[in-house]
TrEMBL record, chains A, B, C, D:
Protein's pathway: Amino-acid biosynthesis; L-arginine biosynthesis; L-arginine from L-ornithine and carbamoyl phosphate: step 2/3
Name of the protein this chain belongs to: Argininosuccinate synthase
Domain Arginosuccinate synthase C-terminal: 179-402
Residues annotated as domain Arginosuccinate synthase-like N-terminal: 6-170
Keyword ATP-binding included in the entry's annotation: yes
Organism: Podospora didyma
PROSITE patterns assigned to the protein according to its UniProt record, in alphabetical order: ARGININOSUCCIN_SYN_1, ARGININOSUCCIN_SYN_2
InterPro entries xrefs: Arginosuc_syn_C, Arginosuc_syn_N, Arginosuc_synth, Arginosuc_synth_CS, Arginosuc_synth_type_1_subfam, AS_cat/multimer_dom_body, Rossmann-like_a/b/a_fold
NCBIfam families, sorted: argG, PRK00509.1
Subunit structure: Homotetramer.
EC number: 6.3.4.5
HAMAP family found in the cross-reference section: Arg_succ_synth_type1
Gene Ontology CC terms: cytoplasm
């Protein structure tokens, strides 16, 4: 069949994408289903069985965990990525690896069209489609939830269930949770449904990756993380295991931090498309690693470089959130991030306990930036305190002019406001 | 006596400043002692008695708590102030109010000289002196710890003790802690001494304002904070008190958060003078209020304004850390901060528990930025999903060019690195 | 008639908007025509006559010159506005005043719909519509050049001419220039048509507001500009007039600078919608005033404030270019701009000559920032050169660490690359 | 002799450094004189003869022109470097290459001390010494103009002349110009003396590298500059030569632009040490190349990348101005600059005429960013104008909320201020 009628659909096995799969087939398309394994819990065989039963030509399941950690999560840690001061970008980080792999799948199976089940109000549609268009501008997109012929037909869940019944689409017998969630190695997110009331706390059973801090163990877990070139290379748990591979280390930290209730965030954020929405996020390992990385940078990165990189990290985070991973600016920023991390190496001792992560100590033997002797208030070895007088005097020149002008203007600085 | 020999000395009653007081008198100066009450624990009568006994002309004790909270701490909350991603600036915030009040004291008591007991390696000397010079460029400064005639004479603690013995300076019978601390409403800091080994955890008994998270109550404390124009105006504790005055509210939060182990930070930071040093900080109320304020901004501040204010807040924080409070740039930045907060109003529900603060929910009835209906994934009321297609298509124009160029350059974006 | 069928159309009298006017009427709309006088050359009576002849209910001509200068052009001067390092934003500055006045006209004449003749590829459609939607979200927009029913019918100029002939739309007998232009007080722009080949120089007869530098007078024109609060308040031409009103002053400078060939810019710029395009701009007065303003800021603004304001000015410029004048971020930025200009006052002596503007001298008697005595290399009055040694020593601390680390890494800084 | 008494002195042959040379010898030092050839006009043999006659052990003259252009000037062009919106950094750019070479000379001739004749109020002392300390923290510095024993003895020019007479220091018979100047390939600067009155125009005979625009040729000179990776690689003069080597090209452009009066700047700037000073600068080639580079970036650099690089270029410029070339932040920034320039290639056609440089046209055949077809207002090939409607609608979401809030607050955006 001509590639013009071949669609590569992001298929999760859920009611929405099953409906889309069937609908596409009924519209005359041949559908190749694609599902990325980015660390979520899933009955993979069941998904494949369902896709094929519904008429998919094939079901591709692509394990992207390793590249997800190495190419997306670790750069995020290197630049202390965060969005609007709170969100660790878990979903945003997964989208580029998924989108890229889906384009590769489309190429392999001769599809000229890509499709997804994202809603028309969210960030994910933007992230997938911008990534697809950058990766291969010649591909077409079918976004059913933005097509009136689709979204008017399926205006509510009842319409979907009716269609499912008519088309032999199996529907899970467990009732749908009154919110949606997105799970991957980096985090699990919870939004929409009852969470759309930001003045109500998230229900206790929302969280899947962290235990409730109130239910966490009564004894803290201590461990140390060793960094090299700004990424974690070793995890040593006190009285426990030592883990070294990037994926294994990240997973182990997810377990440890999650078991201690670390990594919950509940915010109202600004979506790229201009709406505010409430999101709840569970990011155990990311939370710990971001803190550890900031700490080791304190020992190993020059103050002015830190200040520049804070800006760079913020720009990188905005790129990711807005779906601009495959962009010239992200490439440029990441080049700086990598460069800035060459000498970020050392070990951070930490503790997680009932919802909080704490840095206890750190060492960076290869860096000369921290010097106990220089820092010491008890010795003047190699330091001339008189120099500071000159430093202050020169810094004061423009401040004295400011103060003098204020006096002249009748607003002396000595006055409290 | 001529004002040229009159010194206004920042006097704490400790061994260092008592030595300086006596030394100044021996050098022929008349000394007016000054101590700001910025919320630290102190036996005020004892300090006064000691100063007068040592020969000070008078001891001024100036309660600055209210202006400290209103003019410094609250703007810090409004701009989510933080230094190097961790430090909440507790000491930096107190310095401007203290320095300004000391200049006023110097004016009142006809002193042309100011003096302090700060070391020559720290930030505080810079903060005090830049503030003094801005407030009144005509004042002179005596900084004994930067004068060879002083620091060579008092090269170690033994020299200070010997001088104390010879000059009837009373020395506390409790042995000095092997670190130094600075206490005010905003925080208590701990540094130097045994803390100069950043690879060793801070001793358990360092912390004075927060209980150890492991010893914190087994039941969380819940409360809500109401903001108006970006500052907290009401604290309502679940099953407890309601507090409204700015100073009272801040103190109450210090108690609540501290009792639950919230607010500890242990970092290696970059001092203004180019050295790295390790600091431990206890900032219970600041920690909670910063988090609450970020949260309520999520509901009430436009995304682009947030992004601009993140930069402004960062610049403001650097001004404060570097002692540039009395500077034209801080004035300019703060003008923006105040302006940005006009409509930051609402209520945040929180919980503190064993070392962590959590946001549970929030509401901002006066803001139209969050709209449940608009945000909802379950309705399209007032939203045309087709618009997003156009939005994506236009955003993609330059990304498609980027992807096409990459293909031409032999580095297609579909390739994993 | 119901306001739902009443359109307020931005009408210029040209072939495009005349076609739209007629087409709207044929589609059943009642049309109120609107034309803003922002300083362009126009036969106003002729435009009105034409609009009414074609069936417009009325023709509103609104003189916005004064608010254009005071509310848009002068803030641009205050923040040294520029886009992509070259473009002085002439068109971008006019759009907000025009859009706002058109909304007022729509309100006055009971129109619920606004319309314009902008193309679908340009910036202006975005600027108008974003401004309209911010000013009154309840208004609808008809953008014919983005409606397939319109743009497919009028696919080329021949279709427009045919429609004109059929509908008695008078067409100018002078042949259309092979490019388009937009004229206002701030500038005249030239783009599209033969200018779309950026490798060919703009034809000599493109420029309407500046003489060719090669044809400019052989004698320079000298003048001085007096600033107060960052805006020009007096223009004194050597051997000539003195002008004080903001609008009059701006117009006089347009004449003087234009007559000397000053203000041409020819660039390839990035449109908001992701395309690059070539634009030629004639902005005589803006060019001179931007230079003069930068110069007087050199005398009157603190270095750190300058550095912050450079960033603010850049953000403001991007807002304007992208049609985000009516946005919370522009309001925030402009608040800072105004605040930063309180003490920007003084006089700049300049010369324009054959295509270039030159600053010759300046004075700012009310500012204490420049001090001949302090700056002087010939005296040390009030300056201790030893202070600089300390200043350098402290600044060097982190650089010495950097140099030492480089030596250890085998990349000594002494090596040329 | 022990290296502890061996000084490597930056020696120019002038009265100041000749006095310092003699003074150092009288103080018991052995002096190796060092002079960098960075393109200034100099009678090199005469300088050497004078140094040796005064007792220098040797006179090193080091031709650094090639590395100056390649390592400093070209990166400045790549990032469109400018300080405070006007100054092209000519002196700042030369300092790092000179300082580095002087350290190499000190190493070669076993000197542990470096010395210079910079004044205590200027930027150059900071630039030299920070560079020296970064390149080799073990070196000592003698800065006579900051040593009371020196500057009190030589309080005025008469003292220097008297010392010269007593010590057989030859003094030039041509009277000293009433200002100082610093000449190198990048520019010639003029400051101090009579130029310290910023309200008086610089005398006509100040400028050495540009003719007065009024005296420039009546016929423009046209040429094109070809860029590759952001640096000029070919200069083709209309009806004249073609130049390709970096140094030769830069020199040729200096001649052409200087002969047409292009490159003069007269400003009041903020020195690093907090003072404002007036500087006049002649930078013919830099002026032309900065403009050409900005222009070719318009064709070849993505808009978002441009915006990031504007910030990077500004930071780089501040590093250079403040003497922070040898710093980790400059290294980081320059890494980004280089990276951003990979695809900056093309040709810019220009004209210089009586004080102004003009871009006439440009082409960049290897870039796909500018597309005549896409940009064209006359065709819709490959463009769906409807997309822009969606783009605008989504961008408007938050602006509509802003406008609605303004109406509610009683400040509708339709109101002129």
């Amino acid at each position: 069949m001509s590639s013009d009628k071949r669609v590569c659909l992001a298929y999760s096995g859920g009611l929405d994408t099953s409906t889309i799969l069937k609908w596409l087939i009924l519209e005359g398309y041949t559908v190749v289903c694609f599902l990325a394994d980015v660390g979520q819990k899933e009955d993979w065989a069941e998904v494949e069985k369902k896709a094929l039963a519904l008429g998919a030509e094939r079901m591709i399941i692509d394990n992207l965990q390793q590249e997800f950690v190495d190419e997306l999560i670790f750069p995020a840690i290197q630049c202390n990525a965060i969005y609007e001061n709170r969100y660790l970008l878990g979903t945003s980080l997964a989208r580029p690896v998924i989108a890229r792999a889906q384009v590769r799948a489309a190429h392999k199976y001769n599809c000229k069209i890509l499709s997804h089940g994202c809603t028309g109000k969210g960030n994910d549609q933007v992230r997938f489609e911008l990534a697809w268009k950058a990766c291969d501008p010649s591909l077409q997109v079918i976004a059913p939830w933005r097509m009136p012929s689709f979204f008017k037909r399926f205006a509510g869940r009842q319409d979907l269930l009716k269609f499912a019944a008519e088309n032999n689409i199996p529907v899970s017998s467990t009732p749908k949770a009154p919110w949606s969630q997105d799970d991957n190695l980096a985090h699990c997110s919870y939004e929409s449904g009852i969470l759309e009331k930001p003045d109500l706390p998230a229900p206790k059973d929302v969280w899947t990756r962290t235990v409730d801090p109130l239910d966490a163990p009564d004894v803290p877990t201590k461990f140390s993380i060793t960094f090299k070139e700004g990424v974690p290379v070793k995890l040593e748990v006190e009285g426990g295991e030592t883990v070294t591979g990037s994926l294994e280390l990240f997973k182990a930290l997810n377990e440890i931090a999650g078991a201690n209730g670390v990594g919950r965030v509940d915010i109202v954020e600004s979506r790229f498309i201009g709406l505010k929405s409430r999101g709840c996020y569970d990011s155990p390992a990311l939370t710990v690693l971001r803190l550890a990385h900031i700490d080791i940078e304190g020992m190993t990165v020059d103050s002015k470089v830190k200040s520049i990189m804070a800006w760079v990290g913020n720009e990188w985070s905005q790129c990711l959130y807005n779906g601009m991973y495959f962009s010239p600016e992200r490439e440029l920023l990441e080049n700086s991030i990598t460069y800035s991390q060459k000498h970020v190496a050392g070990k951070v001792d930490m503790m997680v306990y009932k919802g909080a992560a704490h840095v206890l100590a750190r060492s960076a033997p290869e860096s000369n930036l921290y010097s106990e002797e220089q820092a010491s208030m008890d010795t003047l070895e190699g330091f001339s305190p008189e120099d500071t007088s000159g430093f202050i005097a020169i810094q004061a020149i423009r401040l004295e002019k400011y103060g003098a002008a204020k006096i002249k203007q009748g607003e002396p600085l000595t006055r409290s406001s």
